[in-house]
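Researcher: We plan to redesign the surface later, but first we want a full-length starting point. Tokens attached.
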């Protein structure tokens, strides 16, 4: 990164800021901290951070309340860092608007990769973009056309919508609910099994061109993540 970015860590465990401050600084981040939901919200409003790192187990309130409050006025990337590894906690945080979820204990390299992915996604959303490129995958959003290694991949409309959603959030988890909302919309069909079927169809069509290396990764019980060039964690 060429310029310093501001990361806000909302965490009441005092050891975590000490662990993160040096590696984040080396990666181009200035770290600010808050220990409660209320001070975290105030800091986010005052500092306008580039990214928020959030523990769910805060002393005053549940960290998910901070996600809901932030999403009322901000699209800042939010990465949850928590010892709560239950699937329903991950799903609830992501559905409320968190961009990603990292379990404690975590590796610094993994956290930095997730932060870079979240920041790239924000940049993509801020640009008027008509194509998405991820390695050998190219999606023409205007034409609804998908190419892999310059070969056209023929997708059904819902298959395309699912792939587009994953590509627009490449490197980040997209939950079953988010895929249903984005690809099925107001349809009466709201079964997660429909998502699994379509994902299987998309995978088969992509693998015919990409080979056995999966582009779409399964986050067990939560949803799916599209692999990026930095997905070595």
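Model: Full-length starting sequence:
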């Amino acid at each position: 990164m060429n310029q310093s970015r501001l990361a806000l860590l909302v965490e009441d465990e005092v050891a975590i800021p000490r662990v993160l401050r040096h590696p984040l600084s080396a990666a181009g981040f200035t770290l600010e901290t808050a220990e409660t939901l209320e001070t975290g919200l105030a800091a986010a409003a005052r500092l306008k951070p580039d990214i928020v790192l959030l523990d769910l187990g805060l002393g005053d309130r549940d960290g998910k309340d901070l996600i809901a409050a932030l999403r009322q006025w901000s699209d800042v990337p939010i990465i949850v860092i928590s010892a709560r590894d239950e699937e329903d906690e991950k799903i609830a945080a992501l559905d409320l608007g968190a961009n990603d979820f990292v379990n404690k204990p975590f590796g610094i390299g993994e956290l930095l990769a997730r932060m870079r992915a979240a920041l790239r996604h924000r940049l993509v959303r801020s640009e008027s973009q008509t194509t998405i490129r991820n390695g050998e995958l190219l999606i023409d959003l205007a034409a609804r056309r998908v190419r892999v290694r310059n070969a056209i991949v023929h997708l059904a409309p819902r298959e395309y919508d699912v792939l587009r959603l994953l590509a627009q959030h490449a490197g980040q988890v997209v939950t079953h609910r988010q895929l249903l909302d984005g690809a099925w919309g107001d349809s009466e069909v709201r079964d997660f099994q429909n998502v699994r079927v379509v994902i299987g169809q998309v995978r088969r069509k992509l693998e015919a061109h990409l080979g056995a290396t999966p582009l779409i990764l399964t986050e067990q019980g939560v949803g799916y993540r599209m692999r990026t060039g930095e997905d070595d964690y």
